[in-house]
Amino acid sequence: MIIDCHGHYTTAPQELTDYRDNQKKELKDNPLIQHLKGEIHITDEQLRESIVNNQLKLQQDRGTDLTIFSPRASRMEHHVGNLSTSVTWTEHCNDLIARIVGLFPKNFVGVAQLPQSPGEGLEASIKELERCVNELGFIGCNLNPDPSGGYFNDVPPLDDKYWYPLYEKMVELEVPAMIHVSGSCNCTFHATSSYYLGADTTAFTQLFMSKTLFKDFPNLKFVIPHGGGAVPYHWGRYRGLADMLELDNINNIIENNIYFDTCVYHQEGIDLLLDLVPTENILFASEMIGAVRGIDPLTGHYFDDTKRYIDAAKISNNKKIMIFEENIKKVYPRINIHLEKYFG
Amino acid sequence: MIIDCHGHYTTAPQELTDYRDNQKKELKDNPLIQHLKGEIHITDEQLRESIVNNQLKLQQDRGTDLTIFSPRASRMEHHVGNLSTSVTWTEHCNDLIARIVGLFPKNFVGVAQLPQSPGEGLEASIKELERCVNELGFIGCNLNPDPSGGYFNDVPPLDDKYWYPLYEKMVELEVPAMIHVSGSCNCTFHATSSYYLGADTTAFTQLFMSKTLFKDFPNLKFVIPHGGGAVPYHWGRYRGLADMLELDNINNIIENNIYFDTCVYHQEGIDLLLDLVPTENILFASEMIGAVRGIDPLTGHYFDDTKRYIDAAKISNNKKIMIFEENIKKVYPRINIHLEKYFG
Fold first, then answer.
1. What is the average per-residue pLDDT within A196-213?
2. Chain B contacts of A275, Cβ < 8 Å?
3. Catalytic residues of B
């Protein structure tokens, strides 16, 4: 079984965008408005249509089986509005994921967006995580390390006690978090390149340099997306910094807690990742249909068809099975409940 | 001749730190203080001592010849104080570089720190660049794309007209800029890992995505340090984004304007850089004595002895000569004035 741990619902019907646009319009009139959840009328037929010729078709074309699926990352936009904006928007986005999983349970399993909001605590995020895991059968969450949308001035580093209540709930529920920023409202950054990759590198660094976090939470698990940002390319720098800062060996630091996905869109980058990062810490992912949607003229295949790069990599079949399946089941243990339910 | 295009004066005598500490003390009492330059008493003997057993010894040990040398990047700290703070501090830092070049002209050639300051224009930076190039014989400058020190909220992207007066002066003087942030006052970032690498990636992205900058300044040259941040590892992502955003081919975009240094501290990273980025756009650099000062237990050699990685790379000798010498002379044409003067 080939499991893609990083897919977003980027092809949702227009009604979802209309709902969001209306929220933004309401905020323009009154930034303190307390939004009500209301309803979004999207039929099952619309959901099917939005998936069948997109993510489902690409799964089949590329030979992957199951996608760990979450709301569109760039549209989480935690920097927009107030807590009620994020809570209502997030519930709708997660509800749609649950419906898609219900329609295609053999192809998708859910991961939750969290209703983070600048200046707020994590109570609403904990509540939504419980709802998504306990009621909707989700198996993980996406955690935004910069709800300011590109100013890095709203929340403390990821090992700060601010995050601990959420981490306690994650450990209790046995779900990991992918650390994933959203769109940027800072014109310095382009969302899917400099902002994503910089935030990935920053998140890894915070976790890597923490002397307390994984002592306090030995079972807490994080996935760093987009191949870990700049980290594997600078593995020597990080190994050297670990030495200078008197940290443990980098492989020991990440061992049971930090994982990299394979959203690196060319063979040479994937080869570097596989060469340096322990296989145990690599999870297959493509993020299709996402940041880079075209066909690479050098190969004739989609840039984000990352399965091809793993297939072509000079590593053993056993290692490929770890990356495609076994590691993901270890990091997302609740996937086994889903598999038992739908695959028997 | 082997030229290292990225060295900072990280071993300056205590008197320089004392001067800076005093500036900070004055600012604590009065943030609006207009600092006077004053004097720092450091003897030639002190300067010699600070270099001979450090950078000069490592040059000899490693078999490199000439270092393009600038003030310590992490101490530029443009976010500290007001314009007069940066102007006086920068002049002293550059003066020390000029004195070291005067003492060791066969080993060092100068690159200027610029007195950027939040909320200010670039007039003072242009003036200091002129002084450093015309009076002190410097051949380039370090440009900080985030004088806020980690909040990315002070200056517009690098292709904005805000920067144009400086670029006009750079082109007129025939000097390139290395895009280099300084220390971070935002606890989100660790300076020499997440902040540097994220800013490198961001700077590259801004330049890469600009549809105007290199049309307006076809001879403007930038060096992206630390191997280009995350960029070469994500070369496929950038190639794919160029396609989606209808930009030119990435090799054409960077051809005469954007260069990567080789401050990547392990063989696999250097191999990836050399494999993907056109040789014409790679400049040898080590940043010794800098972020990572230890010995790699896997190799028994210093992490930042990047010459070893180039030496070991499976590329032709001609390409190595381009990286070690020829490309650098092309990007920093004023180095030839220095070479003629001191090497005859």
1. 98
2. 268
3. 287
